[in-house]
Amino acid sequence: MHSFENILLEKAAANVYCLTVNRPKVLNALNQATLQDLAAALDVVASDQDARVLLVTGSGEKSFVAGADISQMQGLTPLQAKRFGEQALAIFRRFETLDIPVIALVNGFALGGGCELAMSCDFIFAADNAKFGQPEVSLGVTPGFGGTQRLPRLVGRAMAMEMLVSGRMLDANEALQRGLVNHVYPQAELMEQGLKMAAKIAKNGPTAVKFSKELVQRGQDLDLENACAMESDLFGLCFATEEQSEGMQAFLEKRKANF
Ligand code: DAK
Asked: What is the pLDDT of residues 24-40, one digit of tens each?
């Protein structure tokens, strides 16, 4: 267990890290110190060669992350606000560029910066009490941690626009219908289901998993021809790995591959 002031980072299973935003008194709102802790926790995970999956959740049963910390944000100057946004954007981007899949386990409110954090993960599992929204306009600001860009990519322009200009929240089932989350589970089962998926992922060839993530993350911003060319390159590169020999050999020998 690595302990930071505002984040818990533990090995939840062999090869699986769980990062918990831990400020339950303020529904896990993100202040500057928490962002710094997030960056430090990401350094630990990124430098562990045995890590294969990262789960991200919030402390308590009520909230994943209820946004950026409004009490800290209130007095920022324009340049400080810009810096705060840039710092969060850079840290959230690291979830997308991390070598291993990152699953958000949304156990309650995912509002503002919390919804943006969840959307920066590779995919989302939600508890049945989850609520997603970008209520920044009600505070007189726009989202600042990527929400105006990631939300339309996930739910389409029209629904994103509705959410961003009205501040309306989606409950877990609507988020499921709209493709924002992959599955909805009873709150008490959320971690178990996250660990189950993590175990499934961890059984696969880690380099193939890393390349698959990279192809989806980088490919979605490219035209189809260049994106497919990148796929051919990484597909070819898989054949330079022992994982490919082992994976195919194991199939032919009718046994489970050992990666
Ligand atoms: N920040 C600070 N404290 C928060 C918080 C937040 N985002 N959310 C909740 N809390 C605190 C509450 O103040 C309360 O503290 P005490 O009164 O106990 O001291 C405690 O957590 C419990 O909350 P409530 O008593 O309000 O609990 P309820 O169940 O009644 O309501 C709620 C839950 C999630 C509906 C409500 O707390 C709520 O509406 N929270 C705020 C949600 C929100 O608006 N989040 C978005 C924040 S804005 C940027 C531009 C914009 C942004 C960032 C950067 N740049 C230009 C760079 C904006 C980002 C955001 O995320």
From this structure: 999 999 999 999 999 99
